Amino acid sequence: MAVKILSVDDELPLQTLIKQYFRRKIRSGEYEFLFAQNGKEALELLTQHPDIEIILSDINMPEMDGLTLLSRIHEMGNPAQRVIMVSAYGDMENIRQAMNNGAFDFATKPIDMEDLGLTIEKAIDQIEYVHKSEQEHNQLETLKSDLAVARDLQQYILPQTFPPFPEACDKIDIAASMNAARNIGGDFYDFFRLDKDRIALVIADVCGKGIPAALFMAVSQTIIRSKGTVDASAAECMQESNNLLSAYSVDAMFVTVFYAIYDMNTGLLSYSNAGHTYPRLVRSDGSTEQVPPTNCPPLGLFGDALYKEDCIQLNHGDTLFMYTDGVNEAKNPDREELGDERLNDILTGSKDRNCQEVIEAVNRGIADFVRGAEQSDDITMLVVKRK
């Protein structure tokens, strides 16, 4: 599209000179000139043609002078418009005032048309830069909006109703939270009934950050849940889920998973740990122990990987604390990590709390430790207590 240029000058011969000098660019459609004889006419044309982006304005004109016009143009708030002031060489005081008031450049009379042409080209370069910046800003705002929607959708697919099994409140307490380091994260938790006595528990951490991790997270959660409802054991669920995820994994993405089947009547927890952070078992007396590993690889890396399971017993009053490494690897301004020992101290002090209170205590402990340092990883927790 042609660059629209408004020439504002009460000397009519200047119109002829401009049309003659820029005739090739006018014919080729690069430039389109409009003309006004004073500031008042110029404002009317600017209202009719808001896409005018360069104004060549004389300073000394009848009805409305160039300095007044310059201030009125700035009031219109078009960041791309560039004003080039034109005046006699001896009128440097007004030219200097115009430059101080935001004029882009100036030309002196008699006008050197070659110099004016270079000034217009320089103005066009800046205008194009402004338009590009505006476009990038709009794209960024659109991306922010999309990420906000994605964040809401991600939270929506995670269980949010607590207690999740009201009919079993006398047997089990469950709470969970996921706090993404960015707008959207790669961590997730899940829990769902397998039958009247057993529930499945899932906590996972996708490698990477941002949109790719969030998409892989959604796929992983869907696959694990679908396989968990049909496979008899924790190991079988991990095996079948890995077969699917490894077949569809892109750029070697993978997910670490702790998957467990908990019997609410007996307190028996059978589990398979696919490369995930080891959960902590907080006994009713406040002692903590690490849930033994099963030494299985993350899901999505190797299609022929084998998965096995183990089991532990939860006694009345015991709490199982499952988490992602954003918890124990939270860093303070000195780049020190929270670490296992500090986490154990928080959990020991929370032995008599319900699951939601345990999560709140850990979050407070992290906040106190990091002292305002930027969160570098998703922080996700899933806590289960046998009543």
In brief:
With 387 residues, the chain is of the alpha/beta class. It is 39% helix and 24% strand.
Shape summary = elongated
Q: What is the helical fraction, as a range of percent?
A: 25-40%
- Number-wise, the strands total 15
Q: What is the count of helical runs?
A: 11
* Main beta-sheet annotation: 5 strands, parallel
Radius of gyration based on Cα positions: 34 Å
Name the helix and strand elements from N-terminus to C-terminus, one letter apiece: EHHEHEHEHEHEEEHHEEEEEEHHHE
Oligomer: single chain
Determine the mean pLDDT: 92
| Class derived from helix and strand content | alpha/beta
Uncertain parts = none
Strand arrangement in the largest pleated sheet: 2-1-3-4-5
Tell me about this structure:
The chain is of the alpha/beta class. It has helices spanning 13-21, 23-27, 39-48, 66-75, 92-100, 113-157, 210-228, 234-248, 325-328, 339-348, 355-370, and strands at residues 3-8, 31-36, 54-58, 82-88, 105-109, 172-179, 187-193, 198-206, 255-263, 268-274, 280-282, 288-290, 310-313, 319-323, 379-386. Strands 2-1-3-4-5 form a five-stranded parallel β-sheet, sandwiched between helices. A five-stranded antiparallel β-sheet has the order 6-15-14-11-12. A five-stranded antiparallel β-sheet has the order 7-8-9-10-13, with helices on one face. Helix 4 links the parallel strand 3 (54-58) and strand 4. Helix 3 runs parallel beside helix 4 (66-75) and helix 7 (210-228) crosses helix 8. The protein starts with a strand and ends with a strand.
